[in-house]
Amino acid sequence: MSGFELRNGQWWCDQIAVDALADEYGTPLYVYSRARIEENYRRLQYAFKALTPRIHFSVKSNSNGAILRVLRELGSGFDVVSAGEAYRVLRAGAVPASIVFAGVGKTESELAFALEHHLGWINVESVQELEVLNRLANERNAKPQVALRINPQIEADTHHHMNTGGHRSKFGLDVDDARSVLLQAGQYLNLDIAGLHVHIGSQLANTVETVAALQRVLELATLHPIRNLDIGGGFPVPYRPDDELPDPSVFAEAVQQVLQTHPSTPLRSAHAVSPPEAGRRTGWDARFEIAIEPGRSIVADAGVLVATVQYIKVRASRRIVVCDASMAELIRPALYDAYHHIVPVKDTKPSTLVADIVGPVCETGDTLGADRELAEVARGDRLLIMNAGAYGMSMASNYNSRPRPAEVLVEGRYHHQIRRRETWADLVRLEE
């Protein structure tokens, strides 16, 4: 087992005590386990092995260059939603063809960037975007591969801020618009419209809506030659110790079942294909190349946020534990009412009072955990905020003029800083 573990009364990241990292780098501090990232990536590969998908890591979940390089070395492609993310990925050594550029509001300059850097796929989310991209491609004598992101108008069983395929969602083309585009695809002379993309949300609680969305997309695949099917991500991560959520293999099996039974996707054995194709695909072959876009399921439990207790006070028969981490470093609890398990870095005796773990930001919403059965802690003790590797540092801000924290990557017995802590000078560096 790699990652974070309680041993002999204190928490470790692989072979290094978390307390030692906090001593060296200070807090708040993001700590990541390379071994856990690798283990999660390979677990996904194994879960989807029958579909042999292209894996594109969702960069918005964690965009640190060192993390991106680890994933590139594992063979991952990348799913980006801005030209800035694409820039980061290219800087990390990714092959342009391995990058999928999604996003509902790409500017002309971002689309031009994608064309000029020959990114592998552009996932288009509106008819107007398609028209703009066709014009820009014509001006550059280019013909990019394009996938249509479909909004299947199916409500996923998840937090409403994470629902991306519902009736009021801003994402994707409606089915009717997509149908019209596919029937008139020949008019977009500078675009190779050859893919369909669907992603209905994150932290999906079951496969029911995923299957329904995929079936709706496959109906469109009969209208135009489609060779790429991007089924998104959203595979859930258990944030609470007692969470029971479907494993990625459950989603893989559900997707495979749909593909095997849908009339638009006749399958044939890999044994029947030519040697070059058999070398490219294993287990089964279909008319589609499958792509997935995991993010959270690869990095969430591979990272923690370490904080130091500043003050403790008792009010209304509960402890208010004020620490030096805040909503500026981890906004998920304030934004999504998200739960992150919080424990002392060093094991201590139980407390008779529940605790609200809060940060120093001047907002009542700056609460990292409420009504927690937190063990006894004192000023100067450290806390471990678990499963913070996804949407932690990538969503961090400088609110209240707080310098963003350092990030450290642990590799077995070794560790190195992969982003230094910001300084006050950094806060004003770009101001005039």
Describe the structure.
The chain is an alpha/beta fold and 432 residues long. The protein folds into 2 domains: 156 residues, Lyase, Ornithine Decarboxylase, Chain A, domain 1 (Beta Barrel); 200 residues, Alpha-Beta Barrel (TIM Barrel). Helix content is 27%, strand content 23%. It has 13 helices and 21 strands. The strands form 3 sheets. Strands 4, 14, 15, 16, 17, 18, 19, 20 and 21 form a 9-stranded mixed β-sheet that branches. Strands 5-6-7-8-9-11-12-13 form an 8-stranded parallel beta barrel. Helix 2 packs across helix 3, helix 5 packs across helix 6 and helix 8 packs parallel to helix 9. It is globular and about 70 Å long. The termini are far apart. About 7% of the residues have low confidence.
**CATH class group of the largest domain:** Alpha Beta
Computed CA radius of gyration, to the nearest angstrom: 23 Å
What would the CATH topology of the largest domain be? TIM Barrel
Range of helix content: 25-40%
Average pLDDT for all residues: 89
Instruction: Name the overall outline.
Output: globular
Proportion of beta-strand residues: 15-25%
How many domains? 2
Number of helical stretches of at least 4 residues: 13
Instruction: Determine the structural class based on helices, strands and strand pairing.
Output: alpha/beta
Which segments are poorly predicted (pLDDT under 50) over 5 or more consecutive residues?
156-166, 265-285
Instruction: Tell me what the CATH architecture of the largest domain is.
Output: Alpha-Beta Barrel
Major sheet:
9 strands, mixed
**By CATH's scheme, which homologous superfamily of the largest domain applies?**
Alanine racemase
